[in-house]
């Protein structure tokens, strides 16, 4: 049987190296994917991570934002084009880039191939431990129910305890990684009690469908697709307090320092889109059915797994993020202790870029 664990680790390593090499080659004609980023034919070569602003294009600059293929306001923001309209008078164009997961996004941020990332709590911690200089821009709702631990439809596994000694796939340094740790600890188990199989979502999807792993911690729409095809069933999800963290938007320090007005507009338009998405479940489903590859009724039913709101970055959120960093260090998953506060802004700086509607929630 093919060794999926080694395959996942080797692929991630090779692709990370290829990405960094591609980012340093000014004559490259396309952005080399880190992880399993999907290359787009019209993507230009990446600038280096020291470049103060985003790519220069004919008529202005380009702000490069991660593409979402989930039932999210970020996905509808791309489809409806409101951000492009707001940024055009400032001379910005918007480019949406696709990545396999959060860790690959932050590799791209560090190498100058992406400007705004959207990740869970763990990728920024791992990136900081690796020496990246990131800035947390905003916190998003946790949406814990949209992440689930899948087992094959015919699996004898009935509880997390039954996973002891079995192969569990997940993207390393992702929300799946973090929730697996929490789920195991709730049952008195540790990561060492299962066999971790590090695979980015597309590769994990193949491994899971071929019964080469015993479980998979993953987010929507992978969850619902596998359940609908009777390939997998949900063992647990991140709801009921299992997920105790937020998602984050982040950028590089250089991009933040030189593009604060564009960042403010992005967050403002994103929060407007959150409100629209929350209040228009059917319209959102119709818009994103082709993106998610799920039918409209399924997406409407899935809608209540999401909160659709930014939340203010408070001392409580920073403290929780530090707990996450300390957890990863105690488990030997990162090479050094990190002080997450170094990558958060000061309250007065958040007040300048955060929508007033969000600040009012404090």
Characterize the structure shown.
The chain is an alpha/beta fold. Helix content is 42%, strand content 16%. It is built from 15 helices and twelve strands. It is globular, with a radius of gyration of 20 Å. The N and C termini lie far apart (53 Å). Residues 1-54 have low confidence and may be disordered.
The computed structural class is: alpha/beta
Distance between the termini: 53 Å
Mean of all residue-level pLDDT scores: 88
Low-pLDDT residue intervals, each spanning 5 or more residues: 1-54
How is the largest sheet built, in terms of strand order? 8-7-9-6-10
Gyration radius (Cα, Å) is 20 Å
The string of secondary-structure elements, in order, is HEEHHEHEHEEEHEHEHEEHHHHEHHH
**Percentage of residues in DSSP E strands:** 15-25%
Helix content: 40-55%
Tell me the number of helical segments per DSSP (H or I, 4 or more residues long).
15
The 3D shape can be described as globular
Salient structural properties:
362 residues, 5-stranded mixed sheet, disordered N terminus, 15 helices, alpha/beta, globular
């Amino acid at each position: 049987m093919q060794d999926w664990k080694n395959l996942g680790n080797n692929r991630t390593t090779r692709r990370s190296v290829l990405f960094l090499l591609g980012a340093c080659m000014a004559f490259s004609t396309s952005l080399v994917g880190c992880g399993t980023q999907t290359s787009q034919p019209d993507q230009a070569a990446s600038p280096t991570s020291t470049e103060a602003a985003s790519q220069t294009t004919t008529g202005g600059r380009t702000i490069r934002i991660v593409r979402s293929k989930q039932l999210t306001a970020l996905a509808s923001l791309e489809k409806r084009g409101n951000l492009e309209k707001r940024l055009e008078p400032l001379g910005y164009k918007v480019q949406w880039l696709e990545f396999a997961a959060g860790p690959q996004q932050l590799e791209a941020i560090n190498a100058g191939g992406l400007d705004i990332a959207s990740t869970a709590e763990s990728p920024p911690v791992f990136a900081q431990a690796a020496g990246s200089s990131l800035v947390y821009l905003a916190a998003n709702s946790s949406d814990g129910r949209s992440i689930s631990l899948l087992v094959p439809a015919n699996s004898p596994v009935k509880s997390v305890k039954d996973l002891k000694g079995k192969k569990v796939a997940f993207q390393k340094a992702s929300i799946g990684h973090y929730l697996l740790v929490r789920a195991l600890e709730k049952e008195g188990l540790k990561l060492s009690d299962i066999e971790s199989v590090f695979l980015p979502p597309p590769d994990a999807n193949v491994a899971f469908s071929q019964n080469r792993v015993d479980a998979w911690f993953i987010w929507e729409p992978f969850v619902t697709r596998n359940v609908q095809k009777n390939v997998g069933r949900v063992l647990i999800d991140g709801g009921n307090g299992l997920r105790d963290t937020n998602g984050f938007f982040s950028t590089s320090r250089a991009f933040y320092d030189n593009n604060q007005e564009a960042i403010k507009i992005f967050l403002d338009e994103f929060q407007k889109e959150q409100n629209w998405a929350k209040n228009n479940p059917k319209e959102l489903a119709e818009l994103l059915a082709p993106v998610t590859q799920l039918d409209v009724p399924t997406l409407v039913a899935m809608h209540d797994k999401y909160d659709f709101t930014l939340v203010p970055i408070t001392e409580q959120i920073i403290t929780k993020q530090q707990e996450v960093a300390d957890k990863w260090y105690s488990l030997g998953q990162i090479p050094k202790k990190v002080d997450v506060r170094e990558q958060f802004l000061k309250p007065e700086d958040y007040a300048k870029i955060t929508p007033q509607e969000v600040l009012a929630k404090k």
